[in-house]
Amino acid sequence: MLGACLQGRIGHKDEDLRVDLESGLMHGVRQMASPNCDSRPAGVEVDLIVVHGISLPPGEFGGPWIDRLFTNDLPSDAHPYFAEVACLRVSSHLVISRDGAITQYVSFKQRAWHAGQSSFEGRQACNDFSIGVELEGADALAYEPVQYQALAEAVAALCAAYPTLAPDRLVGHSDIAPGRKTDPGPAFDWPHARRLIAAACAKTHRT
After folding, report:
1. Each residue of 102-120: pLDDT tens digit?
2. Residue 8 — pLDDT band, cuts 50, 70, 90?
3. Does 134 qualify as catalytic in the annotation?
4. Which stretch of DSSP H or E encloses residue 202?
């Protein structure tokens, strides 16, 4: 399963982001394979991007902990909170760190385990048809400007690769799991994000 989800390391942060349709990998980002993924249902196309917020421990940033959570190697004794989540089997396609660096954990061809129990426009199980993007952050703490720019560039690359995606097919985790999830939270500036995404998509369309 690991090999089917992601293989190898590709890309450099200073190159334009581009999705390879054959592998489902994004060139120009760091690669870290997560085993927490599986096949999308037959015939289901990706048509939604879900934005999340993540911090480990809550409210703290940096360190190896997201990598280790998504690769099932989080030490339960390293922090009291880790004892609650170390047993979880979760992942996301992309994570955008506080410095704007992007890591891919799951091929876009595969289903990452990011949304949980969820629904959108009457469709259940959003993992089936969505791409999950985690921003390192917390509900009530401002996200970094470079994270918004990295998100815009990633969304533009995804929309260029998959005709079923569009800038308006972008929602928060709280939108697809209301009452259960609150991220990316009130600190996430949706109007700013959408302006940058529109500009990035327009630039990608011209080139």
Report:
1. 999 999 999 999 999 999 9
2. very low
3. yes
4. helix 190-206
Instruction: Catalytic residue, from 22, 134, 144, 153: name it.
Output: 134
CATH of the domain at 199: 3.40.80.10
Q: Taking the complete model, does pTM exceed 0.85, yes or no?
A: yes
What confidence score (pLDDT) does residue 204 get?
80
DSSP annotation of 155 reads: H
The boundaries of the domain holding residue 101 are: 2-206
Distances, alpha carbon 28 to alpha carbons 13, 15, 192, 204, in Å: 5, 5, 24, 15
d(CA 89, CA 127): 14
* Mean pLDDT (whole number) for 75-79: 97
Closest CA to 196 of 133, 145, 126: 145
Task: Please tell me the total count of domains within the chain.
Answer: 1
C-beta separation of 56 from 66 below 8 A:
yes
Whether the link from the prior residue into 57 is cis, omega within 30° of 0, is yes
* H-helix or E-strand spanning residue 152: helix 145-161
Query: Where residue 207 falls among pLDDT bands split at 50, 70, 90?
Result: low
What burial letters (b/e) apply to 139-171, b meaning 16+ CB within 10 Å?
beeebbeebbbbbbbbbbbbbbbbeebbbebbb
